[in-house]
Amino acid sequence: LQMEDKKIESKEVFELFGTVDRTTLLKLIETILVLENKKSIDLAEELVKSGKDVEELFKGMLELMIDLSKAKIDLEYKKSLQIELSSDLAVLDKIKQNHLFKIISKLQDA
Q1: Contact 68, 89 (CB under 8 A)
Q2: In whole numbers, what is the pLDDT of the chain averaged over residues?
Q3: pTM tops 0.85, yes or no
Q4: Cα distance between residue 100 and residue 18, in whole Å
Q5: Predicted local distance difference test score (pLDDT) of residue 108
Q6: Distance between CA atoms of 19 and 98, rounded to whole angstroms?
Q7: DSSP string computed for 36-93
Q8: How does pLDDT run across 9-54, given as a tens digit for each residue?
Q9: Which of 42, 64, 72, 74 has its CA 20 to 30 A from that of 99?
Q10: Angle at alpha carbon of residue 85, lines to 88 and 19, rounded to 5°
Q11: Residue 8 vs residues 1, 34, 85: alpha-carbon distances, Å
């Protein structure tokens, strides 16, 4: 994205709208999935205190959880998601599909 002569970085767009980039969301989701409760709470608190929009945070988490669930069953999709997130998505090997569905359901209710 470019505005006049200045290139706008994606980080600036995320800050402007109070949204969270997917790499940061993945870090939060990973701590939740492996039950690192203190780390999860600390990271979520840090995001909220930094001005992130809570509604957008939940929406982003829901979208990424759906993507992770799809990656769990579709190897090609997993490969593309690994590239996008610069992650090996090893967390998917540690959890069951129904666990992902339960979290998705909770996020939809929020």
Answers
A1: yes
A2: 85
A3: no
A4: 25
A5: 84
A6: 28
A7: -HHHHHHHHHHHHHTT--HHHHHHHHHHHHHHHHHHHH-HHHHHHHHHHHTS--GGGG
A8: 655 554 555 568 899 999 999 999 888 999 999 999 999 898 888 8
A9: 42
A10: 145
A11: 5, 35, 20
